[in-house]
User: Fold this.
Amino acid sequence: MKKENATSIKKYEDIHFVDSTKPVWNYSLLTEEDITNFQNGTLYNGYELFGNKPSIVLDTPGYYFCVWAPNATKVSVVGNFNDWKKGVHPLSVRLDNSGIWEGFIPNFKKGEAYKYHIKGFKGAAIDKGDPYANFWEKRPMTASITWELAYDWKDKDWMSKRIKNNALDAPWSVYEVHLASWMRPDKNDEETYNSYQQITERIVPYVKDMGFTHIELMPVMEHPFDGSWGYQGTGFFAPTSRFGAPQDFMAMVDAFHEAGIGVILDWVPSHFPYDAHGLFMFDGTHTYEYADMRKGFHPDWNSYIFNYKRGEVKSFLISSARFWFDKFHIDGIRVDAVSSMLKLNYSRTEGQWEPNEFGGNGNIEAIAFIKELNETIYRDFPDVQTIAEEATDWPGVCRPTFQGGLGFGMKWMMGWMHDTLDYFKMDPIFRKHHQNKFAFSMMYYYDENFMLPLSHDEVVHGKSPMIYKMPGDDWQKFANLRLLYTYMFTHPGGKLLFMGDEFGQTTEWNYKSELSWDLLQFESHSKLQACVRTLNKLYTSQPALHELQFGVGGFEWVDLNHSNEGVIVYRRKGKKKQDDLLIILNMTPVVRMDWKIQVSGKSSWTEIFNSDSVEFYGTGNVYNPSPTVILVDKKTTLYEINCHLPALGGLVFH
Assistant:
């Protein structure tokens, strides 16, 4: 143990009733103010005080333990160190009715597995992991591990300028990844994992080469069941030990930052599982979850819902979110299942839920929690973003709380995703009847700061991989997918693409295996990957595609009047007029030569992207090295462009 990383208390008067002959010394890190804040839901650094903490008391090294178990009658620390004997190392309950149990065990070592043995309500006797632990045993083992988080960060340059990299006028091209199944040592063995170090060595240069600006990791918080993909978590303050120690995960974040890539973590404050060692019925009562199962049980996920009304639970959750920004230097959190938190009747029929005090269906305390969460994060870390997965029309998700909103920085645009996929799944002959659905996204786009998600949820449970959602023969499938990606990367908003989508994964995502990297030996897949790489470069290099991506001045429809021909034209605008781009999408497998488009402002246009290029597995037969531009109206500076449109092709002109 490094002495400088331990809390050192040497004055006897600072220690409460220490008896050095007892196995557990009655010692506390908590002040009265800490207790008040904890109970009021305003203790935002609970990870500094609860859990296990290396400490030095009376010149003796050891570990301090602190746990909230308000309905317990006895709490003791058990583990390998005492042969899991109950009651040998008892913690003391504070006399302030806080329900907090604590104590210092001298000479306790780093790396020891332990649990809390709790005697609780109606004589319940249970062994629980530490809710605030930073490290856990690798599943199927379930004990917490004493640890400390000292790490020598090397990302000073990134941290000093990330306010620019994470700004809303910066490009947000996000690569969503499930760490275990991105790549495995044995692709057919779900029990094999690459370490954090091995993953880092492979994934950081890949994401850098592909041109993504951020990576989003599906939940890395400790979880007992692989099949939950991390969304049923038990360790809200610990990266999973499947791949290594917390410092190994820190090194991964460090490496991404050194490569100029931001890190977003999926964070799940909406529910937790019923595993015996976890939060459920923590002290024999509904400690962390609502006692009323109309609010406390989630029927979709067979899990339990946090009691957002309870101050100690709110302190726990906001501390968890803040922990990842503070200790792990992350750049954003994507908050999972926000819709389920906001609405009391989410996935419930009449009679299965009770209206709030005003007769509505909003969960008032959950709404208050979300607002306070966002206020706290943006106050303490103004150079990051919080992103909501919210699938309803709840108003003001990205509006500041002082304007009545929830205070998120961005929101997943689920409507765009559904409408876009529905449109592209159609045989092109029918698309002319559904152009309004395709264009509908811009009718409500300015309501929020939207991120366009093509996430893991769209390639599982029988929904098919992206390439097989596309209609037509093999060539048309790839052409359609390139066209969809062209539309996505030139549509306003941030972008999110799930791993494997970038090269046309041909099977649904399976968390038990790995991506089909062998597909890259085929030209169609490697060139689709090249197309995505080029679109990323286009998005990040062209100011018109990101500077005003959330503002009303960044987009303009040019032509929606040719639905029969399936040609759609729009303009993307930057802060400078000379940065404007013209995007033309031909949604049919018909080549259209000498296509006329009228657009104002610029007398010359140059083709800078063509999804039908040979380098992208296109034909390369239809292109526009120097399209003819004729002045139509000098007063309005209206020009007519004569260009050629490839079949199922997307063009970008500058």
About this structure: Residues 34 and 43 are 7 Å apart (CA to CA).
